[in-house]
Design the sequence.
Protein backbone atom coordinates (compact mmCIF):
# COMPACT_ATOMS: atom_id res chain seq x y z
CA UNK A 1 0.00 0.00 0.00
CA UNK A 2 1.42 3.37 -1.03
CA UNK A 3 0.01 6.27 1.00
CA UNK A 4 2.03 9.03 -0.62
CA UNK A 5 2.59 10.30 -4.14
CA UNK A 6 6.26 10.80 -5.02
CA UNK A 7 7.79 13.45 -7.24
CA UNK A 8 10.28 11.71 -9.55
CA UNK A 9 13.67 13.42 -9.52
CA UNK A 10 16.74 12.87 -11.67
CA UNK A 11 20.29 13.73 -10.61
CA UNK A 12 21.37 16.98 -12.25
CA UNK A 13 24.66 18.33 -13.58
CA UNK A 14 26.97 20.08 -12.92
CA UNK A 15 26.98 19.00 -9.29
CA UNK A 16 27.46 21.40 -6.41
CA UNK A 17 30.64 20.69 -4.47
CA UNK A 18 32.82 22.67 -2.06
CA UNK A 19 34.52 24.45 -4.96
CA UNK A 20 31.13 25.79 -6.06
CA UNK A 21 30.21 29.46 -5.80
CA UNK A 22 26.50 29.91 -5.01
CA UNK A 23 24.16 32.87 -5.38
CA UNK A 24 20.56 32.51 -4.18
CA UNK A 25 17.92 35.08 -5.11
CA UNK A 26 14.19 35.45 -4.67
CA UNK A 27 11.51 34.70 -2.15
CA UNK A 28 11.88 33.60 1.46
CA UNK A 29 12.33 29.99 0.34
CA UNK A 30 15.60 31.08 -1.31
CA UNK A 31 16.67 32.04 2.21
CA UNK A 32 15.58 28.64 3.57
CA UNK A 33 17.85 26.90 1.06
CA UNK A 34 20.59 29.48 1.52
CA UNK A 35 20.65 28.96 5.28
CA UNK A 36 21.27 25.26 4.69
CA UNK A 37 24.22 26.03 2.42
CA UNK A 38 25.57 28.51 4.97
CA UNK A 39 25.24 25.97 7.80
CA UNK A 40 27.29 23.48 5.78
CA UNK A 41 29.88 26.20 4.98
CA UNK A 42 29.50 26.43 1.21
CA UNK A 43 30.60 29.67 -0.49
CA UNK A 44 27.19 31.31 -0.55
CA UNK A 45 25.63 34.73 -1.09
CA UNK A 46 21.92 35.02 -0.25
CA UNK A 47 19.56 37.81 -1.33
CA UNK A 48 21.87 40.85 -1.11
CA UNK A 49 18.77 43.10 -1.49
CA UNK A 50 16.71 41.00 0.91
CA UNK A 51 13.71 38.94 -0.14
CA UNK A 52 12.51 39.66 -3.69
CA UNK A 53 9.12 38.09 -4.19
CA UNK A 54 8.42 38.43 -7.91
CA UNK A 55 10.37 38.04 -11.17
CA UNK A 56 10.25 41.73 -12.10
CA UNK A 57 12.02 42.68 -8.84
CA UNK A 58 14.70 40.05 -9.51
CA UNK A 59 15.18 41.34 -13.05
CA UNK A 60 15.53 44.96 -11.83
CA UNK A 61 18.08 43.90 -9.20
CA UNK A 62 20.12 41.96 -11.76
CA UNK A 63 20.02 44.91 -14.17
CA UNK A 64 21.37 47.27 -11.51
CA UNK A 65 24.09 44.79 -10.48
CA UNK A 66 25.29 43.62 -13.89
CA UNK A 67 25.26 47.09 -15.47
CA UNK A 68 27.24 48.52 -12.52
CA UNK A 69 24.52 51.08 -11.85
CA UNK A 70 24.50 53.05 -8.60
CA UNK A 71 21.69 54.31 -6.40
CA UNK A 72 21.60 58.00 -5.49
CA UNK A 73 19.57 60.11 -3.06
CA UNK A 74 16.82 60.54 -5.68
CA UNK A 75 16.15 56.76 -5.58
CA UNK A 76 15.30 56.85 -1.87
CA UNK A 77 12.29 58.08 0.08
CA UNK A 78 11.57 58.80 3.74
CA UNK A 79 8.64 57.07 5.45
CA UNK A 80 7.91 56.06 9.06
CA UNK A 81 11.19 57.58 10.27
CA UNK A 82 13.34 55.51 7.92
CA UNK A 83 14.83 55.79 4.45
CA UNK A 84 13.73 53.15 1.95
CA UNK A 85 14.33 52.02 -1.62
CA UNK A 86 11.43 50.57 -3.61
CA UNK A 87 13.82 48.08 -5.27
CA UNK A 88 14.95 46.48 -2.00
CA UNK A 89 13.45 44.72 1.00
CA UNK A 90 12.79 46.69 4.17
CA UNK A 91 15.59 44.84 6.00
CA UNK A 92 17.98 47.23 4.21
CA UNK A 93 15.97 50.33 5.24
CA UNK A 94 17.79 52.65 7.64
CA UNK A 95 17.25 55.89 9.60
CA UNK A 96 20.41 57.27 7.97
CA UNK A 97 20.14 58.02 4.25
CA UNK A 98 23.87 57.68 3.57
CA UNK A 99 24.01 54.33 5.33
CA UNK A 100 21.18 52.98 3.17
CA UNK A 101 22.87 54.22 -0.01
CA UNK A 102 26.12 52.60 1.05
CA UNK A 103 24.37 49.28 1.81
CA UNK A 104 22.55 49.25 -1.53
CA UNK A 105 25.61 50.04 -3.62
CA UNK A 106 27.86 47.66 -1.70
CA UNK A 107 25.28 44.91 -2.29
CA UNK A 108 25.33 45.66 -6.03
CA UNK A 109 29.15 45.47 -6.12
CA UNK A 110 29.12 42.24 -4.13
CA UNK A 111 26.55 40.72 -6.49
CA UNK A 112 28.48 41.78 -9.61
CA UNK A 113 31.55 39.93 -8.34
CA UNK A 114 29.56 36.90 -7.22
CA UNK A 115 27.83 36.51 -10.60
CA UNK A 116 31.22 36.55 -12.30
CA UNK A 117 32.55 33.72 -10.11
CA UNK A 118 29.30 31.77 -9.60
CA UNK A 119 28.98 28.15 -10.67
CA UNK A 120 25.28 27.92 -9.70
CA UNK A 121 22.61 30.60 -9.29
CA UNK A 122 19.33 29.55 -7.65
CA UNK A 123 16.30 31.73 -8.36
CA UNK A 124 13.15 31.14 -6.29
CA UNK A 125 9.96 32.75 -7.59
CA UNK A 126 7.30 33.57 -5.01
CA UNK A 127 4.45 35.30 -6.82
CA UNK A 128 3.36 36.80 -10.13
CA UNK A 129 1.38 39.53 -8.32
CA UNK A 130 3.11 42.91 -8.36
CA UNK A 131 2.39 46.41 -7.07
CA UNK A 132 2.81 49.39 -9.38
CA UNK A 133 3.53 52.75 -7.76
CA UNK A 134 1.10 54.95 -9.63
CA UNK A 135 2.96 58.24 -9.10
CA UNK A 136 6.08 56.94 -10.88
CA UNK A 137 4.46 54.17 -12.97
CA UNK A 138 6.99 51.65 -11.67
CA UNK A 139 6.67 48.11 -10.32
CA UNK A 140 8.18 47.93 -6.84
CA UNK A 141 9.92 45.10 -5.04
CA UNK A 142 8.50 46.15 -1.66
CA UNK A 143 5.80 48.64 -0.64
CA UNK A 144 7.44 49.49 2.71
CA UNK A 145 4.00 50.04 4.30
CA UNK A 146 3.25 53.02 2.06
CA UNK A 147 -0.59 53.35 1.89
CA UNK A 148 -2.13 50.82 -0.51
CA UNK A 149 -4.02 53.55 -2.38
CA UNK A 150 -0.66 54.64 -3.84
CA UNK A 151 -0.35 51.34 -5.73
CA UNK A 152 -2.15 49.39 -8.38
CA UNK A 153 -2.07 45.62 -7.97
CA UNK A 154 -1.39 43.67 -11.17
CA UNK A 155 -0.90 40.04 -12.18
CA UNK A 156 2.03 39.43 -14.52
CA UNK A 157 0.94 37.30 -17.47
CA UNK A 158 2.78 34.09 -18.39
CA UNK A 159 4.41 36.03 -21.24
CA UNK A 160 5.49 38.87 -18.95
CA UNK A 161 6.98 36.45 -16.40
CA UNK A 162 8.76 34.64 -19.22
CA UNK A 163 10.22 37.91 -20.50
CA UNK A 164 11.49 38.77 -17.00
CA UNK A 165 13.17 35.37 -16.76
CA UNK A 166 14.75 35.63 -20.20
CA UNK A 167 16.02 39.13 -19.40
CA UNK A 168 17.42 37.90 -16.07
CA UNK A 169 19.20 35.00 -17.76
CA UNK A 170 20.65 37.37 -20.35
CA UNK A 171 21.95 39.74 -17.69
CA UNK A 172 23.57 36.89 -15.73
CA UNK A 173 25.12 35.39 -18.87
CA UNK A 174 26.54 38.78 -19.89
CA UNK A 175 28.96 38.33 -16.98
CA UNK A 176 29.14 34.55 -16.75
CA UNK A 177 28.13 32.57 -19.87
CA UNK A 178 28.63 29.13 -18.27
CA UNK A 179 26.84 29.44 -14.93
CA UNK A 180 24.07 26.93 -14.16
CA UNK A 181 20.80 28.66 -13.30
CA UNK A 182 18.37 26.66 -11.15
CA UNK A 183 14.78 27.89 -10.99
CA UNK A 184 12.28 26.86 -8.36
CA UNK A 185 8.82 28.06 -7.34
CA UNK A 186 8.36 28.81 -3.67
CA UNK A 187 6.05 26.46 -1.73
CA UNK A 188 4.99 29.40 0.47
CA UNK A 189 1.33 30.22 -0.13
CA UNK A 190 0.67 33.93 -0.57
CA UNK A 191 -2.69 33.76 1.16
CA UNK A 192 -3.05 37.55 1.43
CA UNK A 193 -3.61 37.59 -2.32
CA UNK A 194 -6.43 35.06 -1.86
CA UNK A 195 -6.15 31.30 -2.29
CA UNK A 196 -7.60 31.22 -5.80
CA UNK A 197 -5.40 34.19 -6.72
CA UNK A 198 -2.34 32.49 -5.24
CA UNK A 199 -2.90 29.39 -7.36
CA UNK A 200 -3.37 31.55 -10.44
CA UNK A 201 -0.11 33.33 -9.66
CA UNK A 202 1.83 30.10 -9.10
CA UNK A 203 0.48 28.65 -12.36
CA UNK A 204 1.79 31.69 -14.28
CA UNK A 205 5.22 31.24 -12.70
CA UNK A 206 5.36 27.50 -13.39
CA UNK A 207 4.22 27.84 -17.00
CA UNK A 208 6.73 30.63 -17.68
CA UNK A 209 9.65 28.80 -16.03
CA UNK A 210 9.09 25.61 -17.99
CA UNK A 211 8.76 27.48 -21.27
CA UNK A 212 11.99 29.32 -20.48
CA UNK A 213 14.12 26.35 -19.46
CA UNK A 214 12.90 24.26 -22.42
CA UNK A 215 14.84 26.65 -24.64
CA UNK A 216 17.99 26.74 -22.48
CA UNK A 217 20.07 23.65 -21.68
CA UNK A 218 22.02 25.47 -19.00
CA UNK A 219 18.94 26.16 -16.88
CA UNK A 220 17.32 23.65 -14.55
CA UNK A 221 14.20 23.31 -12.43
CA UNK A 222 13.86 21.99 -8.89
CA UNK A 223 10.26 21.16 -7.87
CA UNK A 224 10.05 22.66 -4.36
CA UNK A 225 6.43 23.69 -4.91
CA UNK A 226 5.41 20.30 -6.27
CA UNK A 227 7.06 18.40 -3.41
CA UNK A 228 5.15 20.54 -0.91
CA UNK A 229 1.82 20.29 -2.71
CA UNK A 230 1.91 16.65 -3.81
CA UNK A 231 4.09 14.82 -1.28
CA UNK A 232 3.59 16.82 1.90
CA UNK A 233 -0.17 17.16 1.55
CA UNK A 234 -0.94 17.70 5.20
CA UNK A 235 -1.14 20.71 7.50
CA UNK A 236 1.36 19.10 9.88
CA UNK A 237 4.00 20.11 7.33
CA UNK A 238 3.10 23.80 7.66
CA UNK A 239 4.26 26.26 10.26
CA UNK A 240 1.79 27.69 12.77
CA UNK A 241 0.67 30.34 10.25
CA UNK A 242 -0.50 27.52 7.92
CA UNK A 243 1.26 29.32 5.07
CA UNK A 244 5.01 28.69 5.39
CA UNK A 245 6.53 25.20 5.30
CA UNK A 246 7.48 23.86 8.72
CA UNK A 247 11.05 23.06 9.74
CA UNK A 248 10.39 19.39 8.92
CA UNK A 249 9.06 20.28 5.46
CA UNK A 250 12.08 22.46 4.71
CA UNK A 251 14.37 19.64 5.83
CA UNK A 252 12.45 17.18 3.63
CA UNK A 253 12.75 19.39 0.54
CA UNK A 254 16.43 20.04 1.33
CA UNK A 255 17.07 16.28 1.39
CA UNK A 256 15.65 16.06 -2.14
CA UNK A 257 17.78 19.00 -3.23
CA UNK A 258 20.89 17.29 -1.87
CA UNK A 259 20.12 14.09 -3.76
CA UNK A 260 19.53 16.01 -6.97
CA UNK A 261 22.27 18.65 -7.02
CA UNK A 262 25.05 17.95 -4.50
CA UNK A 263 28.04 15.74 -5.29
CA UNK A 264 28.86 12.54 -3.37
CA UNK A 265 32.18 14.00 -2.23
CA UNK A 266 30.47 17.15 -0.94
CA UNK A 267 27.94 15.04 0.99
CA UNK A 268 30.84 13.43 2.87
CA UNK A 269 32.28 16.84 3.72
CA UNK A 270 28.84 18.06 4.81
CA UNK A 271 28.71 15.17 7.27
CA UNK A 272 32.03 16.30 8.77
CA UNK A 273 30.81 19.90 8.99
CA UNK A 274 27.63 18.76 10.74
CA UNK A 275 29.64 16.78 13.29
CA UNK A 276 31.63 19.91 14.12
CA UNK A 277 28.51 22.11 14.25
CA UNK A 278 26.80 19.67 16.61
CA UNK A 279 29.90 19.47 18.80
CA UNK A 280 30.14 23.27 18.98
CA UNK A 281 26.50 23.42 20.09
CA UNK A 282 27.15 20.94 22.91
CA UNK A 283 26.83 22.36 26.44
CA UNK A 284 28.82 20.39 29.05
CA UNK A 285 27.77 19.72 32.64
CA UNK A 286 31.36 20.22 33.79
CA UNK A 287 33.38 22.50 31.45
CA UNK A 288 36.62 21.86 33.36
CA UNK A 289 36.47 18.06 33.38
CA UNK A 290 39.20 16.04 31.67
CA UNK A 291 36.58 14.43 29.47
CA UNK A 292 35.34 17.80 28.21
CA UNK A 293 38.85 19.19 27.69
CA UNK A 294 39.67 16.12 25.63
CA UNK A 295 36.42 16.65 23.70
CA UNK A 296 37.45 20.26 22.92
CA UNK A 297 40.91 19.19 21.81
CA UNK A 298 39.41 16.61 19.45
CA UNK A 299 36.99 19.24 18.12
CA UNK A 300 39.82 21.67 17.36
CA UNK A 301 41.67 18.88 15.55
CA UNK A 302 38.62 18.19 13.35
CA UNK A 303 38.26 21.90 12.58
CA UNK A 304 41.94 22.19 11.69
CA UNK A 305 41.80 19.16 9.39
CA UNK A 306 38.78 20.51 7.51
CA UNK A 307 40.23 24.01 7.23
CA UNK A 308 43.45 22.56 5.83
CA UNK A 309 41.39 21.13 2.98
CA UNK A 310 39.04 24.13 2.58
CA UNK A 311 40.69 27.36 3.69
CA UNK A 312 37.47 29.38 3.25
CA UNK A 313 35.60 27.40 5.92
CA UNK A 314 35.34 29.35 9.17
CA UNK A 315 33.62 28.27 12.39
Sequence:
Amino acid sequence: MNLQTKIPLKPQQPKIDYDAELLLLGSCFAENLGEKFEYFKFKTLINPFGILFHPKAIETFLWMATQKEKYTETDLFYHNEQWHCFDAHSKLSHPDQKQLLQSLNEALDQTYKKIQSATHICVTLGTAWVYRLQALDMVVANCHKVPQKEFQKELLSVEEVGQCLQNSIGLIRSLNPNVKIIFTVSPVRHSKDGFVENNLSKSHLIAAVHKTIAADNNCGYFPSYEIMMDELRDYRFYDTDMIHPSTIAIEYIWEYFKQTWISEEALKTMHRVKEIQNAMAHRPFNPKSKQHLSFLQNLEHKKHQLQQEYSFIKF
